[in-house]
Amino acid sequence: MKKIALMVTAFALLLPAHAGSERLIGTWKSNRPSTLDYLKTHTKLTPQQLEKVGTALGKMVFIFDAQNVTLKSGDWKFVSKYKILEESKAVIIIESENPETKKLEKTRMELDANGFWTPDDKIPGYKERFDKTAK
After folding, report:
1. What is the structure's pLDDT at 2?
2. What's the confidence (pLDDT) of residue 20?
3. R_g of the chain computed on alpha carbons
């Protein structure tokens, strides 16, 4: 029995460590129209505020591999290791570096069949939509 346990442990150590879920692996792009439609009905943002927020939407891209998440917007790019803290059918919570503070931060992704939503607590009711563009 000890031999079997030792072999299983040794085999497990030889496997590559994966931080990510297979469901996250790929490229995800901000969906400006879907996000604005959602914000119009779920926030108290004024038309002027929605217009201002809308200028930033549709540009951000998340690229997940098994260990890193890359954020891109125009010429800006940031790469961080990430790990999954929680995962269910509908939600994945990851921990990765915040590009501005360089501190570890949790990000909640609410998944559905075609993509995910990321809430932002700074604006009550705010969520941004990301759709998968490539695996």
Report:
1. 42
2. 55
3. 18
Rounded Cα distance between 103 and 100, Å, is 8
Cα 36 off chain centre by:
19
How confident is the model at residue 1, as a pLDDT? 45
Residue 88 belongs to a domain: yes
The C-alpha atoms of residue 120 and residue 117 are separated, in whole angstroms, by 10
Query: Where in the sequence is the domain holding 89, given as residue range(s)?
Result: 18-134
Considering the entire predicted model, what is its pTM? Answer: 0.81
| 30: amino acid identity, one letter | S
Query: Measured over all CA atoms, what is the biggest interatomic distance in the chain, rounded to whole angstroms?
Result: 69
Q: Is residue 66 part of a domain?
A: yes
Q: Tell me the CATH number at 62.
A: 2.40.128
